[in-house]
Specification:
The chain is an alpha/beta fold. It is 30% helix and 23% strand. The protein has 13 helices and 19 strands. The strands form three sheets. Strands 1, 12, 13, 14, 15, 16, 17, 18 and 19 form a nine-stranded mixed sheet that branches. A hairpin with a 3-residue loop joins strand 12 and strand 13. The model has no long low-confidence stretch (mean pLDDT 96). Bound molecules: pyridoxal-5'-phosphate.
């Protein structure tokens, strides 16, 4: 599928008068329409709810948009819980899916009455010691081990993943929890990441529904919800066929009707914890070409670097690039598009065919709306960029300012560096 930027060169030239590059830009309209399509696909399930995976795009303005659309939050840490609270997402609208969880994080999750999703059977005791009791509603994360395949295609390797209860532990865990007074149970699993196929959710749902029916039969536990978690992917590469969320919803419905309805479990709510699928395509990293280098290869040096978007450096991930204003020009030049880190993996693209590009051109790096800004870091003393929101009416709002050196030095308490540099006391 052809990839088009959701902004033009003219729009970006206006934005940079107020907000210099690099910045992440999000498309409110795209996010809202996408969430509505997701909810429509699962509208057949009465209790359906999307708990947006906060770690994908932890910005209160984005969470607020998602809240308005009826989403909850999937949190994995103390600060993500705080962020949810700040935007007014509370209680059963929060799924706390953490692992190797510190006690104070469980305590805050319980204080906020979030739904706790346990990652391990030993956390039953840990949680009880932390809280002094066991909540009436609890979820357990399942990991069947082995490989997760669709037909002959291996999608991922849960057997090598640190998460979740084994099958046997699910049964033991449910029995123990039931004795401890749990009344409503959830089952959660995340078995393959960034799947670009309509089959992942239906196949996963089938496995979890069968497990739910068995757990109900053998332990008498009331299964209140099945959480299909994240994992629906996006087509980063233009050759990839995007997922069809309507088809995915129908596939899950068939499994539900074949397994849960006959088991007398037609009240089970379906939950999802999508991150990438929700916001991924609706974010751009906008950056300016500031250097051109002609050595053993042709390089475009840009003002963003891997600290703004780690995926290419970390996973060698493909991110499509559009040279704004040159969309229709022949893509007859081969470039490496590189950032300024002292790390040779700081390359947004290698051997990429692009139109002839000049210093001063603006590039859009696509699909940075999830696991983009949020994976940022400060290596080489680089600062995090701003985040901007393109509102539905075409206006642009600063939803996170760029870091300044003051932010970078703010944590040197007691070493007086901050005070020497900035001359004020905090
Ligand atoms: C990361 C994560 C998600 C979201 O994953 P996506 O790939 O962004 O859909 C959901 N649930 C849990 C527990 C996660 O760790």
């Amino acid at each position: 599928m052809e990839k088009k930027a959701f902004v033009t060169r003219e729009q970006v030239e206006k934005m940079v008068r107020d907000y210099p590059t690099p910045f992440h830009l999000y498309d409110e309209k795209g996010i809202r329409e996408n969430v509505r399509a997701l909810q429509k696909a699962f509208a057949w399930n009465k209790g359906y709810k999307e708990f947006f995976a906060v770690k994908a795009a932890p910005n209160p303005f984005l969470l607020d948009i998602l809240k308005q659309e009826g989403c909850g939050c999937d949190c994995s840490s103390y600060t993500e819980l705080m962020l949810s609270r700040a935007v007014g997402i509370q209680g059963g609208d929060i799924m706390f899916s953490s692992n190797e969880t510190p006690a104070e994080e469980y305590a805050l999750a319980e204080q906020m009455k979030a739904i706790i999703n346990l990652d391990d059977i030993t956390h039953i005791d840990f949680l009880e010691r932390t809280l002094g009791y066991i909540p009436k509603t609890l979820s357990c994360r399942f990991n069947p081990g082995g490989y997760f395949s669709l037909g002959t295609d291996i999608m991922d390797n849960p057997g090598d993943a640190k998460y979740g209860f084994t099958r046997e532990q699910m049964f033991d865990g449910f029995r123990i929890l039931k004795e401890k007074g749990v009344e409503h149970f959830g089952i959660h699993a995340f078995l393959a990441s960034n799947t670009v196929t309509n089959e992942y959710y239906p196949v996963l749902a089938r496995q979890l529904f069968e497990l739910a029916a068995e757990l109900h039969r053998e332990t008498g536990a009331h299964i209140a919800f099945v959480n299909l978690s994240g994992g629906i992917g996006i087509p980063y590469h233009p050759d990839q066929e995007p997922n069809d969320i309507g088809v995915i919803g129908e596939g899950v419905r068939r499994a539900y009707e074949e397994i849960l309805i006959p088991a007398g479990m037609g009240d089970v709510a379906l939950y999802t914890e999508l991150g990438r699928f929700i916001t991924g395509p609706f974010g751009h990293l906008v950056t300016k070409v500031i250097h051109q280098k002609h050595t053993h290869k042709e390089y475009l040096g840009v003002d963003a670097c891997a600290v703004n978007l780690m995926r290419p450096a970390m996973y060698r991930a493909y991110h499509h690039i559009t040279v704004l204003g040159k969309e229709e020009a022949p893509h007859d030049r081969k470039y490496d598009v590189v950032g300024s880190l002292c790390e040779n993996n700081d390359k947004f693209a290698v051997d990429r065919m692009l139109p002839e590009t000049e210093i001063g051109d603006y590039l859009v790096i696509h699909d940075t709306g999830a696991h983009g800004f949020s994976m940022g870091y400060n290596y080489n003393g680089k600062l995090r960029s701003a985040e901007l929101l393109l509102r539905e009416d075409g206006s642009v709002e600063l939803i996170r300012r760029a870091e300044t050196p003051k932010d970078y030095f703010a944590t040197f308490d007691g070493f007086a560096v901050y005070d020497k540099l900035f001359g004020d006391k905090r």
